[in-house]
Design brief:
- The chain is of the alpha+beta class.
- It folds into five domains: 145 residues, no CATH class; 93 residues; 90 residues, Immunoglobulins (Immunoglobulin-like, Sandwich), CATH 2.60.40; 87 residues, Immunoglobulin-like; 181 residues, Jelly Rolls (Sandwich), CATH 2.60.120.
- Helices cover 28% and strands 25% of the residues.
- The protein is built from nine helices and 34 strands.
- A seven-stranded antiparallel β-sheet has the order 23-24-34-26-30-31-32, with no helix packed on it. The chain has a six-stranded antiparallel β-sheet with strand order 22-25-33-27-28-29, with no helix packed on it. Strands 8, 9, 11, 12 and 13 form a five-stranded antiparallel β-sheet that branches.
C-alpha cells in the first residue's frame, strides 16, 4: 500500500475495522481488500473515528482538517501519480470525488457558492449524523468537507430523540387546542340551544301578548255591538209606539169626519140640531189640540268612538322582554354570617332580564313567629346582598322581587337566615378540675334561637403559643356545661364558641387549668342569704347583718342553715381539698347529695356527711355527723387547716388535721350518686377553701 495516498480519499465513506485500521466499504470499492493504510499518516495512538470526532471532538477534527487535511499547496507529482493509480483501482466514484475535492482546494472561494439545494446526497448514502442547522440527517464526510462543514451536528439518536420530543410537544399542543376547540364547540352548541329556547319563549310570550290584545279588541267589539243592538231596539220600540198612536188618532179623525159629513147631509133639521151639538163639541175638542208631531228618539245612533288610548296602551305594552319570574331564595351557606350581618343569595331563571332586585326582610321572634310588621327593603343590582346592622344571634326572614322594564315579578319564597351569636361568658369561678378531667359551665350572652356550643382546648407547653397550636374540640354541646377527660399533671387552655345556623361565634377568653389536684367552685345560687362570697370565689364570710330578702331566691338556696354548696368534677375517683378556719369559728364542712334538703342542716339527714366544730365554755367540740349521729370521738389538737379526701373507689370520706398530718375521722360509705362539697358557718367568721393542691403523702396511706 502506498504511503503517499492522497487524503482526499477520506471524502468517501470509511469505517474502522476491528484491528484499528480504516478501510472502505466493499460495496463501494468493488473489491474485498483494503486499498490504503493510514498508519503512516496518523499514528496508531492518534487514529480516529470520523463519526466520533465529528460529533464529540470538534477541536480534534479542526486540528486535523487545518493541518493535514487543509489544501495549503498543490499536490506533488508523486501524489498525483499515486492518486491516479488509486483511482484506477477504486473506480470512477473515487476518481470523481478526488476531482471534486481537488477543485475545491484549488478554488476555495467556490465553497461559499454552494446552496443547500445544490447539496444532493445520494439516495443510497447512509447518514451518520444529524445537522441541526438544516434539520436533516447527513453523512459524516459532509460535515468534514461538504456544505455542512460549519454547521452544528449531533448523533442521529439525539436528533431522533429531539425530533420525537418536538413532535410530542407539538402533539400535546395540538391536543390542547383540540380540547379547547371541543370546549368552545360545546359552548357554542349550548348557546345555540339556549338561543333557540329563548327565542321560542319570547315568541310564545309575544303571542300571548297579542292574544290579549285581540281578546281585548274582540271583547270591546262585542260590547259595542251589543250596545248598538240595545239602542236600535229601544229606538224601534219608541217609533212603533208612536206609529200606533198616530194610527189611532187618524182613525178618530176619519170617524169624526164621516160622522160630521153624514150629519151635514141630513135633511131633518130636528135630527141635525139634536145630534149636531155633540158632533160639534167633539170637533171643537179636536180642533183645540195643537198638532205638533215629534219623534220620540233621534234618528242618528250614538257615536261610540273606539278607545284608542286603551288599545295604544296595550300595543305599547307588547314587548319582547317579559316580566321576570319570581326569584328563588337560596338557603343560608356556612360561614357567610357575622354577629351583625348575613350574606343573602337568590337565583333567577337564565332567560329573565332584570334591571334591579328589591330585597325585603324582617326580624323574627324566638318562637319563629312574626313580631314586627315593618319590613325593611334594599335595592340591589346583583343576586346577592350583605345585609348589615342586624342583631347578634337573631333570626331573620328574607324574600326578594325582580324588576325590569316590563314590570315587577311576584315575591320569591321566603328563607330564614341567622346572624352569628356573640361569644358566651365563662370565668374561672365556673370551672372544676381534678387529676383526670375538667368540668366547666358558661352563660350565653343572649337567649335567641336554639344554638349549640363548641368547646376547644389544647395542651399548653412552655414557650408555646396556644392560640396557634393544634386544638381538640368537642362539638354539638347542647347545654351550657361540659365534662372533658384530660391527662394528669398537664396544663390546658380552653375556650368556648356559640354555634347556630348562621355560623360560629368568636371564642371566649381562654381559661387555663392544670390537672395537678382538685379544683372546685362555689355555686352562689345555693348560698344562704347570710353568707357572702368574696371576689376570689373561695372565701366565705358569715355576717348576720347582711341577711335580706332576696326576690330571686330559688329552690336551690339553703334557707335554714347558713351553708353553700360547691361543684366538683362529676367523675368518680379521688378528690382532695382543704379548708382554713379560725379556732373561734363554728362551722360544718363535708359533702352532700345535690338534692339534699335546703331547709335542714348538714349531717342531720341521710343525704349529707360533715365535720362539725362547736365552741363550749370548756373546750372545742368536734362531731362527725351523718343522719344526726356522731361517734364518741375527742380531738385534743384543734385544727386550723382541715383536709378532706373523697375517694369513690374505696367508698371513704376522710378528714385530716393538715397541721400535724393527722387522720381525724373516716366515713365508710359507697356513694351510689355523686356528692358535692358543702360549707356552713354557724357563727361570725371567715372560712377559706384551698384547692388545686397535690395529694399530700399522708392521704396515700388510706
Amino acid at each position: 500500500m502506498a504511503e503517499g495516498l492522497p487524503i482526499e480519499l477520506l471524502s468517501h465513506d470509511i469505517y474502522r475495522e476491528d484491528d484499528g485500521s480504516l478501510s472502505y466499504p466493499e460495496a463501494e470499492s468493488g473489491t474485498t481488500q483494503n486499498f490504503m493504510e493510514f498508519s503512516n499518516i496518523f499514528p496508531v495512538e492518534k487514529q480516529f473515528d470520523p463519526f466520533q470526532q465529528i460529533v464529540d471532538y470538534p477541536e480534534s477534527v479542526s486540528q486535523y482538517s487545518e493541518g493535514l487535511l487543509s489544501p495549503v499547496s498543490e499536490p506533488s507529482g508523486l501524489e498525483e501519480s499515486e492518486a491516479e493509480n488509486t483511482t484506477v483501482q477504486c473506480g470512477d466514484n473515487v476518481a470523481e470525488s478526488i476531482r471534486d475535492l481537488r477543485t475545491l482546494r484549488t478554488n476555495p472561494s467556490k465553497e461559499t457558492e454552494f446552496e443547500p439545494d445544490d447539496q444532493e446526497i445520494a439516495q443510497d448514502t447512509i447518514p451518520d449524523v444529524y445537522c441541526q442547522s438544516c434539520d436533516i440527517p447527513i453523512p459524516a464526510f459532509e460535515k468534514l468537507f461538504g456544505f455542512h462543514k460549519h454547521h452544528s451536528v449531533i448523533p442521529l439518536a439525539e436528533g431522533a430523540a429531539a425530533a420525537k420530543l418536538k413532535c410530542q410537544n407539538n402533539l400535546k399542543k395540538l391536543e390542547h387546542q383540540l380540547i379547547q376547540m371541543e370546549t368552545f364547540s360545546n359552548h357554542l352548541e349550548e348557546i345555540f340551544v339556549t338561543v333557540e329556547e329563548n327565542i321560542g319563549k319570547q315568541e310564545h310570550y309575544l303571542e300571548l301578548q297579542y292574544d290579549d290584545l285581540m281578546q281585548f279588541l274582540v271583547q270591546r267589539f262585542e260590547d259595542r255591538s251589543q250596545g248598538l243592538e240595545e239602542e236600535k231596539k229601544l229606538k224601534l220600540e219608541k217609533l212603533y209606539d208612536l206609529l200606533v198612536s198616530c194610527g189611532h188618532t187618524m182613525d178618530d179623525y176619519k170617524e169624526l169626519m164621516e160622522s160630521t159629513d153624514t150629519l151635514f147631509k141630513t135633511e131633518d133639521k130636528q135630527t141635525f140640531l139634536k145630534s149636531g151639538q155633540t158632533i160639534l163639541a167633539r170637533l171643537e175638542d179636536f180642533l183645540q189640540e195643537v198638532l205638533n208631531p215629534e219623534l220620540p228618539t233621534a234618528l242618528e245612533f250614538e257615536n261610540f268612538p273606539t278607545d284608542m288610548a286603551e288599545v295604544q296602551r296595550l300595543i305599547d305594552s307588547i314587548s319582547s322582554i317579559p316580566v321576570p319570574s319570581a326569584p328563588s331564595m337560596c338557603p343560608q351557606c356556612p360561614d357567610t354570617a357575622t354577629s351583625t350581618s348575613v350574606k343573602v343569595r337568590w337565583s333567577l331563571s337564565a332567560d329573565d332580564t332584570v334591571e334591579h332586585y328589591q330585597l325585603y326582610y324582617r326580624k323574627l321572634g324566638d318562637n319563629t313567629q312574626d313580631k314586627e310588621t315593618a319590613d325593611t327593603s334594599l335595592r340591589v343590582k346583583e343576586m346577592f346582598c350583605t345585609v348589615r346592622n342586624l342583631q347578634p344571634g337573631s333570626l331573620y326572614l328574607f324574600w326578594v322581587t325582580a324588576t325590569n322594564s316590563a314590570g315587577t315579578s311576584d315575591e320569591s319564597d321566603r328563607a330564614e337566615y341567622m346572624t352569628v351569636p356573640p361569644a358566651p361568658r365563662i370565668s374561672n369561678r365556673a370551672v372544676a378540675v381534678c387529676q383526670s378531667a375538667v368540668f366547666m359551665e358558661w352563660e350565653p350572652r343572649i337567649y335567641g334561637p336554639p344554638q349549640t356550643y363548641t368547646l376547644e382546648f389544647c395542651q399548653v407547653c412552655s414557650g408555646c403559643d396556644w392560640t396557634e397550636s393544634l386544638t381538640e374540640s368537642v362539638t354539638g354541646v347542647t347545654s351550657c356545661k361540659a365534662l372533658i377527660e384530660l391527662e394528669p399533671g398537664e396544663s390546658y387552655s380552653f375556650y368556648v364558641r356559640a354555634v347556630n345556623g348562621g355560623g360560629s361565634s368568636e371564642r371566649t377568653e381562654p381559661i387555663t387549668v392544670r390537672t395537678t389536684g382538685t379544683q372546685l367552685y362555689l355555686m352562689e345560687q345555693t348560698a344562704h342569704l347570710s353568707l357572702s362570697i368574696l371576689q376570689d370565689g373561695l372565701t366565705i364570710v358569715y355576717n348576720e347583718e347582711s341577711l335580706v330578702t332576696d326576690p330571686l331566691t330559688t329552690h336551690e338556696r339553703f334557707t335554714s342553715a347558713p351553708a353553700v354548696m360547691a361543684q366538683l368534677v362529676p367523675v368518680r375517683g379521688r378528690h382532695y381539698w382543704e379548708v382554713e378556719v379560725a379556732e373561734d369559728v363554728e362551722y360544718r364542712i363535708g359533702v352532700a347529695f345535690k338534692d339534699t334538703p335546703r331547709d335542714s342542716r348538714l349531717g342531720s339527714n341521710i343525704t349529707s356527711w360533715c365535720m362539725r366544730h362547736i365552741l363550749t365554755p370548756s373546750r372545742s367540740k368536734f362531731e362527725f355527723l351523718h343522719k344526726g349521729q356522731t361517734p364518741d370521738l375527742r380531738i385534743t389538737v384543734t385544727p386550723t387547716r382541715i383536709g378532706i379526701l373523697l375517694d369513690y373507689t374505696t367508698g371513704k370520706l376522710s378528714f385530716f388535721n393538715v397541721n400535724i398530718c393527722q387522720l381525724l375521722f373516716t366515713f365508710s360509705q359507697h356513694f351510689q350518686n355523686l356528692v358535692n362539697p358543702c360549707f356552713a358557718l354557724e357563727s361570725y367568721g371567715i372560712l377559706k377553701i384551698c384547692h388545686n393542691i397535690p395529694f399530700p403523702e399522708f392521704t396515700k396511706l388510706l
